[in-house]
What we know:
single chain; mainly alpha; 2 domains
Amino acid sequence: MYADAVKAIGKNSPDAVRKSLAFQALARIGAIFDMEGKLKNLSPEERLRERKKAVEPLVDEYFAWIKQKLSDTGSLPRGKTAEGMNYSIHQEKYLRVFLTDPLVPVDNSASERSIRPFTVGRKNWVLIDSVNGAKASAVVYSVVETARQNGLNCYRYFEHLLTELPELADENENIDSGRLDPLLPWSDKLPELCRAPRRR
Length: 200
């Protein structure tokens, strides 16, 4: 939202950009991300300690600055800048969670990366227009993402599943869930071929 507000001012007005509330907000957020970036190689305990010491004061300053600007009736922001500030205030509790849990990232980039293939490809799946189709799609995506998180080659893993699952089914095509453990993505009984690195 802030970035959109800065773009709206235009490259031809650098002074106006620097004086804008959106630019000032981005500068404060940038400082938070810069400081957080220096902590990425620390252990969780060290990261939490450094977040408290170095990052939390920047977060506090950002929110104090926004609240002061919103209470200043002489310079109330409008448009995208107002949206960004109001969003920050309404989501403050959640935006601060990373300061109390060292395993929570400062942003949601990992989540966005994981859903990008689905977002990009959704036009290809307009034929999945039933509840059963949606459920099947959800199952496949869950298996794919879990396989990726466990460092598996998704193609080889699915090939292995489709080969082995029919062998476990009884005459009614039911499979006892207790027999599935060796096929789970984290199983150490998976063939090495499933663990081959994916092509880049």
